[in-house]
Amino acid sequence: MNTTVSHELLFDYFAGRVTALQRETIADWLRDPANEETFYRCLDEWERRKPQYIADLTAALPTYRAFLEQTPPGTVAATAEPPPTAVPFQAIRRSWFSRSGLIAASVALALLAGGWLLRDHLLYQTIQTAYGETRSLQLADGSTVVLNANSSLRVPRFGFGKAIWGEKSRHVQLTGEANFAVVHTPDDQRFVVHTAKGLDVVVLGTEFTVFARPRETKVVLAKGKVLVNYPTSARRTEQLTLKPGDVVALDSGGRLKRATTPKPRDYAAWQRHEFIFNNTSLREVGQLLTDNYGLQVRILGDELARQTITGSFHAENADELLQAISDVLGINVVRHDQQVVLNDNNA
User: Fold this and answer.
1) Are 333 and 322 in contact (CB under 8 A)?
2) How many Cβ atoms from other residues are within 10 Å of residue 110's Cβ?
3) Is the pLDDT of residue 82 over 60?
4) Which residue ranges does the record assign to the FecR protein domain (predicted)?
5) Do 145 and 219 share a domain, yes or no?
6) How far apart are CA 46 and CA 56, in angstroms?
7) Which of 256, 249, 333 is nearest to 299 (CA)?
8) Average of pLDDT values for 209-236?
């Protein structure tokens, strides 16, 4: 159903001033995922206009500590009428924790977890690509990002590039692989790409590629200068400055390797549906097919798995890439759904 929902109606909905029919209209409207962004933007605007109560913990904690220090354990403040039955303090405490306390704690934890999850969905947007899909997007600051297949980028819905805790910066979280072209801002805002393994890329304005998958995290700088923050075995964070052509990789064991390449943009050739191999083993090619297309690749024989391939290949999909590999190496490729078997024709 094609339904139009105005901002005024959404504001009334947040304030609890809508009818049952209007509530159903909004529910139908929200079934279209394209309307989620508008919904959350209106919610943020409404909450800014009508802020809810926020406890002043900074002021309350000293008061509460003073109360605890002045009130001996086990004492109860005097009342005008004493309680009809005296109950030992220990019994009260044990009863509260065994029944009411556990119930209250469970409810509080459930509300806290639910509120935190809603907060995360409200504040951040996640852009994802499927297997075999690449996607180009422009961020609020004008920077462009091209996501490779089977990747995701988490970005703030609001305030991107605005002052947060006194610092103006742009933060995103990457899982998978992406190429970034970051614009320089007049006030020199940092642009930070976070990865799951604790390796962060800090830039001002430059072009680079980040690969962040379970087996390895890699940064390749094509233009400009970036800082790479990475964890060490001593549980410290070290910083490394990269120049164009530098390649830094952090393996699954936390070991950092640094190399150089004369053609850093080759690492982002997948944007053009090109795959550039340079003495790349067939085992590594099989891992690429898994990462980008979700294929489960089985290579018959260690000798075949160690065989290398060099060259540039254009492939719009997995089948075209498999055909190119088969032609160049002279091997047999059998695919059934997401299962692929590679074997030597001469075997």
Assistant:
1) yes
2) 10
3) no
4) 126-226
5) yes
6) 22
7) 333
8) 88
Residue with the two structure tokens 């400009």: 224
Q: By C-alpha distance, which of 279, 216, 283 is closest to 247?
A: 216
Both tokens assigned to 21: 């029919």
Where a domain ends, among 266, 285, 320?
A: 266
Strand partners, 192: 171, 202
Averaged pLDDT for residues 168-191: 88
Residue 321, number of CB atoms within 10 A of its CB: 21
Q: Are 152 and 135 in contact (CB under 8 A)?
A: no
Look at the chain and report how many structural domains it folds into.
Answer: 3
**Model pLDDT for residues 128-152, shown as the tens digit of each residue:** 999 999 999 999 888 999 999 999 9
Examine the fold and report which residue of 236, 266, 296 is the final residue of a domain before the chain moves on: 266
The 3-state DSSP class for residue 252 equals coil
DSSP labels for 213-224? Answer: ETTEEEEEEEES
Domain of residue 5, residue span: 1-77
Work out the number of other CB atoms within 10 angstroms of the CB of residue 80: 4
pLDDT of residue 89: 38
Residue 189: partners with Cβ closer than 8 Å, 6 or more residues away: 141, 161, 168, 169, 170, 204
Tokens at 211, concatenated: 């690969």
